[in-house]
Structures are given as C-alpha cells and as structure tokens.
C-alpha cells in the first residue's frame, strides 16, 4: 500500500502509468510505469495479484496528472457508490407486475406479439420472475428478438427489432437491414428497388433504393463487419413521417428499435423508466 504522498510522487515522475487502486480503502496499492512497449493487457493481468483487498485498474495518461488526482478518484468513487445505492433502493421498491399485464399495457400502445407467438414462447427464454421483477425492462428487450425454439425464425414482434450493428459480411446485408427497418415501421410499400454491394476486402460498399419518387445512392463506409450507422440514419430519416420516429432501447453494441409517435414513446417511457430514446436527435 502506498501513501498519498508516495503515490503522487510516483505519478509525477511517471505520468504514463498503470495504477492498482484499492476499491475498499480508496488508496493506491501500486503503480506500474508504462513505456512505449508496455502491453496493457499484461498490466490488467496484474490485478489478479494479492493486494489485500478488492482492486481495480486505472491507466493514467500523460497530461492527466494533477496534485489532486487521487482526491478526484475518491470523489468519483463516492459518486458512483451513491448512484449504485440509489439505483438499488429504487429497484427494491419496484413492485412486480404480471407478464400478461405488461403485454396488455404494450398492446394498448400498439405493440403486440406476432400471430402464433405465445407467453409460453417468452417463458422458454426467461423465467416469469425475470420479466415481472423488473417490469417492462426485459420485456422491451425480448420483443426485439426471435423465439428460441422451433419453428425457428419467428420474431416475438415484427414491429420491434434487436439490431446488432456488427452484422456486415457480404452483399445483401444492407438490403436485409433496410427491409427490417420498414417492417419495424410497418410500411412495406414505402421503399422499393433496394440494392447494395459490399466487399470488405476492397473496402467498397454502396446502398441504393427509391422512396417518395426519389432515388437514393449512398456510398457506405466500410469498417470491418460493422454497419455504417450514418448511412442507416439517412434511411431512418427517409422512413420517418407523420409524427413517427425510430426509438431505441440500449443493448450494448446493439439497439432495440421501435417506431412510435411521441405520445406512445412517452407512455412507454413512463412504464419503463425512460428506456427509449430517439435514434436521430432533434
């Protein structure tokens, strides 16, 4: 364990460092200076050593050091702990809501299970308590997925989509995305003549379609197998109309997409602790 004075002196001498931080005592356990050949994954592996209590790692970049850096770390930890405590208290106060009641509330908002999909299909993926202990949280997620048993390929709800943006491998993938977007919007006749080209090796891709009598021809940036979200935001902007917009529920590298008017989005947000946000700001 290092005193604050020792830690500050070491950080001042080596402004590019990896700091092992004792989470319980909020003190510096050890500092490893970094060089041009340092492997950050090897630094993280040092967290498995015995420091006498729970630890986490912090990389300090050149220029980040100030004499109050340790105090700022402590204050940030306290704020995070206070937020976690508040969230835990809020979750503890949540009253379970039967899954069927949640589905009825969403049905009143126009979000329903596809024909042939049942509550039993939902309970095959997660148990009832998982849905009911955090009302609408898990439900708004699972509606964008597919039923996890035969017959395969059945969305829980075609008007909701769990869009994983790491999904571009070949020609046809952007056509598939555009097709799924108009299904979420419930407007199958809106976009026509959809075509694309994808070549990851050459770094070339494009997307074309017609909408409202206008032809769109987008050059798409290639970034490994990640979908180019800027171009897709243009597609969504083309689709949005009559007060309806695409909203998303965060799901890591994916997003759960809904197509709603502002009033319906506000109603669902009231049920779900503001879980939906517009995909396109403004």
Short description:
With 282 residues, the chain is of the alpha+beta class. It is built from ten helices and ten strands.
Overview of the molecule:
The chain is α+β, with helices and mostly antiparallel strands. It is built from 10 helices and 10 strands. It has helices spanning 4-13, 40-45, 69-93, 99-107, 119-125, 128-132, 137-142, 173-185, 229-239, 262-272, and strands spanning 17-22, 27-33, 55-60, 161-164, 191-199, 204-211, 214-219, 244-251, 254-261, 276-278. Strands 4-9-8-10 form a 4-stranded antiparallel beta sheet, with helices on both faces. Strands 2-1-3 form a 3-stranded antiparallel beta sheet. It has a 3-stranded antiparallel beta sheet with strand order 5-6-7, with helices on one face. A hairpin with a 4-residue loop joins strand 1 (17-22) and strand 2 (27-33). Helix 8 runs parallel beside helix 9 (229-239). The chain is globular. The mean pLDDT is 92.
């Amino acid at each position: 364990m290092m005193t604050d004075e020792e830690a500050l002196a070491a950080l001042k001498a080596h402004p590019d460092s990896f700091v092992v931080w004792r989470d319980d005592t909020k003190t510096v356990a050890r500092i490893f200076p970094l060089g041009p050949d340092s492997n950050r994954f090897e630094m993280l592996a040092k967290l498995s050593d015995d420091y006498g209590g729970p630890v986490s790692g912090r990389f300090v970049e050149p220029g980040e050091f100030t004499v109050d850096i340790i105090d700022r770390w402590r204050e940030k930890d306290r704020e995070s702990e206070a937020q976690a405590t508040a969230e835990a208290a809020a979750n503890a106060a949540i009253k379970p809501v039967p899954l069927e009641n949640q589905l009825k509330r969403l049905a009143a908002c126009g979000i329903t299970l596809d024909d042939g999909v049942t509550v039993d299909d939902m309970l095959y993926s997660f148990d009832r308590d998982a849905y009911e202990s955090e009302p609408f949280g898990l439900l708004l997620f699972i509606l964008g997925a597919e039923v996890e048993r035969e017959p395969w390929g059945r969305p829980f709800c075609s008007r909701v989509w769990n869009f994983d943006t790491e999904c571009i491998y070949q020609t046809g993938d952007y056509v598939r995305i555009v097709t799924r977007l108009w299904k979420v919007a419930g407007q199958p006749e809106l976009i026509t003549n959809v075509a694309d080209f994808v070549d990851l090796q050459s770094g070339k891709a494009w997307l074309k379609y017609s909408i409202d009598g206008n032809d769109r021809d987008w050059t798409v940036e290639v970034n490994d197998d990640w979908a180019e979200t800027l171009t897709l935001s243009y597609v969504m902007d083309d689709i949005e109309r009559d007060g309806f917009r695409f909203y998303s529920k965060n799901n890591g590298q994916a997003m759960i997409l809904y197509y709603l008017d502002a009033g319906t989005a506000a109603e669902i947000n009231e049920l779900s602790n503001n879980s939906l946000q517009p995909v396109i700001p403004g």
